[in-house]
Amino acid sequence: MEQLSNIGVIRDVLTRHGFSFSKALGQNFLVNPTVCPRMAEQGGAAPGVGVLEIGAGVGVLTAELAKRADKVVCVEIDKRLLPVLSETLAEFENIEIVNADVMEVDLKTLIQEKFQGLEVVVCANLPYYITSPILMRLLEQRLPVRSITVMVQKEAAQRICASPGSREVGAVSIAVRYYSQPKVLFQVSRGSFLPAPDVDSTVIRLDVLEHPCVQSDPAAFFKVVRAAFSMRRKTLPNCLAGGLGLSKQQAVELCQKAQVPQNARAEQLSMEQFAALADVLKTGEV
Q1: Which residues contact 78 (CB under 8 A, 6 or more apart)?
Q2: Chain segment 176-224, per-residue pLDDT in tens
Q3: What is the pLDDT of residue 286?
Q4: Which of 169, 198, 200, 242 is most buried, judged by most C-beta within 10 A?
Q5: According to CATH, what is the number of the domain 7-208?
Q6: pTM of whole model > 0.90?
Q7: Level-2 CATH architecture, domain 218-283
Q8: What Cα–Cα distance (Å) separates residue 164 from each residue in 5, 88, 140, 178, 274?
Q9: Rounded (to 5) percent helix, strand, coil in the chain
């Protein structure tokens, strides 16, 4: 459909289909004509590639992905958008819309069934309210995807891509870096959306690692990470004691055996230090 990025055209299409925006679904549709081509290009859409998109909106990004990739499969939760997308994406034969909740659908099976013989990437404009849960679901399931390119709230992007040892780092930063190499691609102003949100956005790409960046038991690793960031202003032994159900002395011994400074705070630790704590915890030495 021509002029799909024209706000007047989009409003007309939505009005004809009786569509109204849902705050509960965090619907802010990307309409900037310069953003979607950049996102598709830097997200890896290309010949020989299949793209899994999460949330189509009115199909502006979907169309740009379909122009470049062999196939695009979009998981869209809002069934009200299905007739809209049938119109806006009618010219493309390599797009399939799956009406489902990305937090419930079996993504591994979906990828195996829909993208046989293709390298797969994920590309999406994510709802702000559920950014972290969706990213962690994509990463924790160890899906056969090369990268995950998403547009998220600017502040969320800063946390997600924060390096260990920086003030911005949090539990989600460590979790993302455990599975991938995050990178900030470019900024997107709030005026690029319909309706315009109250904040600016950032496009980031997570290049998925073949193996986690540190060798450690995942359950123990993330248990330590959650505990370490449970009280940001407290030193590590206090956080570990409260978060892991240990006595203060046991938490101190855990730090000593892992060779992690007792006066450190979670944001000061490296990935290797989190792994060392997890290894000691896993062995039951405290």
Answers
A1: 22, 25, 27
A2: 999 999 999 999 999 888 788 889 999 999 999 999 999 999 999 999 9
A3: 62
A4: 169
A5: 3.40.50.150
A6: yes
A7: Orthogonal Bundle (1.10)
A8: 39, 43, 20, 11, 10
A9: 45, 20, 40
